[in-house]
Every structure is written in structure tokens, then in C-alpha cells.
């Protein structure tokens, strides 16, 4: 839902135009920083920096708000569970068999913030990188083209399947289907929708297989060419150097601000 949501922001920003391999480096470097970091000040700084990049990329606030809404339940659940089951320091409340501590809650809050930052990093890459560019970037990094095609089709058909599900559900409801109840009863009521979805997906898979076969996909001894080409420019080298400098600086601060 978040990824497939249409963006009304500027699609010609320097972040969109950067080489996809630079953005992959950004994701890998910041994931390494976030997974190693245990300093809440650095985590807060990374979160603010990511929101700044979202603004520079022209991504509307509604999309950022949608991300936070999707991640809010787990962001609240993790600190609460951590405070009860992994307490630290002096407990705020102790009933003998269950304990709640503020240090545990704060540490759980940091874990939740780390997960949010990881998600924001990946989603920034997905929001600002076209599927074709992503596949080209992976191929340039020596990833087999077949793997890139699988990723491309997955990203393309996820929103298509969502639209197909809504269309089938609305069509069945127009014929008198009532989606009520929960558990097994709801699953039984939704069976006509599931059957129609499976049939439609099988038809689509058959059409896709025939389309790939007609284009000699996977044939050996053929030099594959691409309609589009990506090359590292001077700006991309600058971006890569800045990413490396920022990442090493954050890691240095993490290990020295104890």
C-alpha cells in the first residue's frame, strides 16, 4: 500500500537522477550504521536527516505520514513489551511476577526508532528509483538478469494484484456477497473472491510465460542489450564519497561517544 501509493512530488530532483547504484550504497551504508549504532542521539539525527532527504526528493507529507501510520503499532508495541519483559535499572512498578521499568521502555523505544529508520531508508530508495533503473543497477553489479526481472515483476504486480483484488471484491459485493464476521466464517464467505483471484493469477502467469518464451528469454549464446543505459557521472562519485564520509563519521561518533 505504501509503495504503490502515487506520488505527486517533484520527480526530477537530484535524488531521483542519482545513479541507482549510489542509492543502493546509501541503503547498505545506513543500514550498517543503524544496526551497529546504540546511541539515541545519533539515531535521532539519522531520522531527521532521512526526513530532510524525503523533503528534498519532493515526496509529499501525506506519503511520509502514511509510513508513520503503518509503522505506529509496532513502534508502540516494541517499547511496551521491552519494558515488561526486558526491564533494566530500577523498576517503576513491580508486582512480583511482572515488572515495568523506564530504562527498559526507553531502550525499546530506541529499537522501535531503529526499525522505523531502516524502513524509511529502504522506502526512500523505492520512492526515488524506477523499476527499470533498479534492475539495470543490479545487472551492473553483476546480479543475474533473471533475478532482476523477478524483482521487477514483483514490484510491478503487487499493486496490480491489489487492484485486481478490489475489483473482484466489489464485483462479488455487487452480486450480493456480504463480507461479515471473522475467523473461519469470514474465510468461508471470502472463498469466491479467493477462487477468482487464483484463476486470474494463473491466467496472468500463463500469459507472462508465453510472452517471455516468445521473446526468447533465457536463450543461451545471446548478448542482451538494454533500451536504457546508466553510467556513473561526476555527481554520482561526489554522492558516493559523501555517503561514505557520513557513514564513517557516524560510526566513529558511535564508538567514541560512550
**Largest pleated sheet:** 2 strands, antiparallel
Q: Which descriptor suits the 3D outline?
A: flat
Low-confidence stretches: 1-9
Question: Got a strand count?
Answer: 2
Count of domain modules: 2
Rounded to the nearest angstrom, the distance between the terminal CA atoms is: 40 Å
Compute the gyration radius: what is it?
Answer: 23 Å
Strand content: under 5%
Please work out how many helical segments DSSP would assign.
Answer: 10
Strands ordered across the widest β-sheet: 1-2
Order of helices and strands: HHHHEEHHHHHH
Nearest-integer average pLDDT: 83
Secondary structure class reads mainly alpha
Helix fraction, binned, reads: over 70%
Word description of this protein:
The protein folds into two domains: 140 residues, no CATH class; 71 residues, no CATH class. 71% of the residues lie in helices and 3% in strands. Strand 1 and strand 2 form a beta hairpin. Helix 3 packs parallel to helix 5, helix 4 runs antiparallel to helix 5 and helix 7 packs antiparallel against helix 9. The chain is flat, with a radius of gyration of 23 Å.
Amino acid at each position: 500500500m505504501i509503495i504503490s501509493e502515487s506520488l505527486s512530488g517533484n520527480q526530477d530532483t537530484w535524488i531521483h537522477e542519482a545513479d541507482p547504484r549510489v542509492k543502493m550504497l546509501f541503503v547498505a551504508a545506513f543500514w550498517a550504521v543503524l544496526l551497529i549504532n546504540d546511541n539515541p542521539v545519533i539515531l535521532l539525527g539519522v531520522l531527521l536527516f532521512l526526513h530532510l532527504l524525503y523533503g528534498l526528493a519532493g515526496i509529499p507529507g501525506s506519503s511520509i505520514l502514511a509510513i508513520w501510520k503503518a509503522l505506529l503499532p509496532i513502534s508502540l508495541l516494541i517499547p511496551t513489551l521491552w519494558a515488561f519483559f526486558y526491564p533494566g535499572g530500577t523498576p517503576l512498578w513491580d508486582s512480583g511476577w511482572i515488572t515495568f521499568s523506564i530504562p527498559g521502555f526507553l531502550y525499546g523505544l530506541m529499537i522501535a526508532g531503529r526499525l522505523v529508520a531502516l524502513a524509511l531508508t529502504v522506502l526512500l530508495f523505492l520512492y526515488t528509483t524506477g523499476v527499470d533503473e533498479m534492475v539495470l543497477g543490479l545487472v551492473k553489479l553483476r546480479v543475474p538478469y533473471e533475478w532482476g526481472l523477478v524483482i521487477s515483476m514483483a514490484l510491478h504486480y503487487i499493486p496490480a494484484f491489489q487492484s485486481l483484488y478490489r475489483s473482484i471484491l466489489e464485483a462479488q459485493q455487487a452480486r450480493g456477497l456480504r463480507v461479515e464476521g471473522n475467523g473461519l466464517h469470514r474465510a468461508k464467505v471470502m472463498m469466491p473472491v479467493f477462487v477468482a483471484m487464483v484463476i486470474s493469477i494463473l491466467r496472468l502467469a500463463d500469459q507472462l510465460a508465453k510472452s517471455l518464451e516468445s521473446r526468447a528469454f533465457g536463450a543461451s549464446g545471446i548478448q542482451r542489450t538494454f533500451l536504457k543505459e546508466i553510467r556513473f557521472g561526476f555527481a554520482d562519485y561526489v554522492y558516493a564519497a559523501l555517503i561514505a564520509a557520513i557513514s564513517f563519521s557516524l560510526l566513529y561518533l558511535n564508538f567514541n561517544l560512550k
